[in-house]
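Field log, afternoon session.

UNIT: design team B
ACTIVITY: writing a sequence onto a fixed backbone
BACKBONE:
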C-alpha cells in the first residue's frame, strides 16, 4: 500500500492543478481504505483491481474497481449495533463528507463495481 500512496502523491505533484495538503492526505487515506476493502472482500472473485485518480472540475476523484458483484451497504446507511464489518467504508464516507465531497458505488457493465470518492480542491 505504501507504493500506491507514493505513486499517487508523485502523480499529483506533477500536475499543474494544486492539490491542498489536507485534501491530498484525505484522498490517500480514502484510496488506501478502498484498495484494502477490494483486496479483503473481492479478491476471491476478482483477483485484479483497477485504480483511477482524476483531477477536473475543481475536484479530485479516486476510484477502485473490482469484478465482485457485491455492493457494500456501508456507504448507503449507518450500521446497526451488531454490524462488525464496513468500518473502512464508513471512514471513507465520513472523510468524504467532512471534506464536502461525495462518494458512491456504481455497477460496471461487466457485473463488478466501482467505489469512488470525489473531494473538492477548495475548502467546502
Amino acid at each position: 500500500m505504501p507504493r500506491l500512496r507514493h505513486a499517487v502523491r508523485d502523480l499529483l505533484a506533477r500536475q499543474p492543478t494544486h492539490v491542498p495538503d489536507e485534501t491530498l492526505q484525505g484522498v490517500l487515506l480514502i484510496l488506501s481504505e478502498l484498495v484494502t476493502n477490494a483486496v479483503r472482500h473481492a479478491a476471491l472473485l476478482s483477483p485484479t483491481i483497477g485504480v483511477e485518480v482524476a483531477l477536473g472540475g475543481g475536484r479530485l476523484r479516486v476510484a477502485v474497481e473490482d469484478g465482485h458483484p457485491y455492493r457494500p451497504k456501508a456507504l448507503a446507511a449507518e450500521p446497526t449495533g451488531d454490524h462488525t464489518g464496513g468500518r473502512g467504508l464508513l471512514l471513507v464516507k465520513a472523510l468524504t463528507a467532512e471534506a464536502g465531497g461525495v462518494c458512491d458505488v456504481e455497477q460496471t457493465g461487466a457485473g463488478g463495481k466501482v467505489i469512488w470518492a470525489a473531494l473538492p480542491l477548495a475548502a467546502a
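LOG NOTE: Residues 2-120 form a domain with the Heat Shock Protein 90 fold (CATH 3.30.565.10).
NEXT ACTIVITY: expression trials, pending approval
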